[in-house]
């Protein structure tokens, strides 16, 4: 049973993996990254998330290995706390309360019981680098109020701070200034580059900094694409610098190798550049990484690199510049035009991804499964270019069909519109283009929906447009003498007094089609396409439209732009009830009669769960998010929950997800992110020490079951057990494999 008090709104995924530089474990087996309020621990070999370190109350802004113990990890956050973790077991060891916002974290092996953080003092744009003394204590929470000033007037980004020559000095860059603080001499040297912003295509401003690990050499990146190598900077008059230039745009990040023999750089070209011996002529490239490189990390062992990219992914790269693993998070597109959809086959979340693509995202593992290229055109990264945009998408026939709409418009009279119908190919396990329709409407398409009724014989798709029409598309035989084929064609065109068609949806049994024309809702017979009735409340244009389900299938719901929610009875053709509610999201649960509506107020977003048969909500939760919620979706559960409270039973069969304006993906849950990790992911840590022999896969999991009772219980729920008659499972599986080899089966 689930306790009522345990239900809460949690961040379930979609957080940025590229907010800060990734950090490797000492043995390069794991890579750590900040992700919203959490720290995620990934295996570099399998790309699996093996732990989620949860404990901070605000955005995590920095992570570093403990130089005194490489099995421990420090983290800092906007909540003003520094936490020490055992990342192998996922356990919080200690919390140091600093008390002010922490923007970045640095550690040094030579710094006794101290770490370095970036804080802001008084003015919002004035940041300082300070040293924080971490007191020794047996208690788990300790106040760390002893701060020592190091540098002033610095950039808040950790890419603009670097420690060099085994901690002898620290370099900081901001605007056109380079500051170097020497710890032993306790002196600061400052260097200035002349501002050349008034010259065409010339920008000298600093963008990032890296320091040689064993020499007095500082590398700085600049807005003009140049890299400057500074030497003799202990003397403000005798300093020198040399330039390396390959990047055509600003240098996003720099990193020296562990020995300092090479320098890595990256930027908007999506190319990792390795400058060997810091020479202009001696450079190697790893191109076509897919998106802007925002951060570069080097493992302590020196065998792996990690690049973080603007499309929310991390790439693990071997020392020979070969990519070995890709950890892809939820791609943050500029606009989510398609809304949130669920792929009926994979239960993956589907929405806009990188330009011109649909991304299929696993909600269980919090990582991207794959991208589907819809526009099938090379993306050109030019800010002034009008791109083709994927604006609509819908699944039909239990995932057998996918409809997409893409558009491009430079001027009001130059609209390019294309609709594509994709069929699922079982052999390739993917979607294949079946039909392409150029200019299916004369104006923008506002909505599209399939008839997903169980008894529907012929697949049917409906599109609505600002041109005042809705069109019905059906699947027809398109065979010729060469091959058998099917294709989509327009079967019916409907309109209502030249009003713009804005929304459409089918009833659960597919017998009725509802189409809204601005303020008016029309009901059509899906057999004859005859207009049956109309509803008009004069409460504003219809923003959302949906039919009730199961026992509430006789109701139709509509939400207007003027903040009125209407419920019509289809049997009496009259208004059943209405409520004043500014609905921004309205989603029906496919497994029950429940409907979730999210309204927007000055305080934030509020959730209302109700059934169309009665206006009284089953559940209300205020302020589920401080920002605007733009999309929502119900995801059917594989295993139903067992909420006992009547107010929470709407979550038994399906889980509700919603996406905010900043593209944070949230849900209602009773589990922490660590508890939601699959047993397989957790098992990776325990199985690292087992030899990968042919009998490993037979004996290994049983040995682990004897060592970990909790994992055993989880595995029983997840794995399909073979019919065994022996008391020792490992022996039984071994005998089973041997019997198959000789052609006999022993039971």
From TrEMBL:
InterPro entries: Beta-prop_WDR75_2nd, WD40/YVTN_repeat-like_dom_sf, WD40_repeat_dom_sf, WD40_rpt, WDR75. SUPFAM superfamilies: WD40 repeat-like. It is found in: Nucleus, Nucleolus. The keyword Transferase does not apply. One of its GO terms (cellular component) is small-subunit processome. One of its GO terms (molecular function) is RNA binding. Residues 340-663 form the WD repeat-containing protein 75 second beta-propeller domain. Ribosome biogenesis factor. Part of the small subunit (SSU) processome, first precursor of the small eukaryotic ribosomal subunit. During the assembly of the SSU processome in the nucleolus, many ribosome biogenesis factors, an RNA chaperone and ribosomal proteins associate with the nascent pre-rRNA and work in concert to generate RNA folding, modifications, rearrangements and cleavage as well as targeted degradation of pre-ribosomal RNA by the RNA exosome. Involved in nucleolar processing of pre-18S ribosomal RNA. Required for optimal pre-ribosomal RNA transcription by RNA polymerase I. This is WD repeat-containing protein 75. It comes from Physeter macrocephalus. The gene is WDR75.
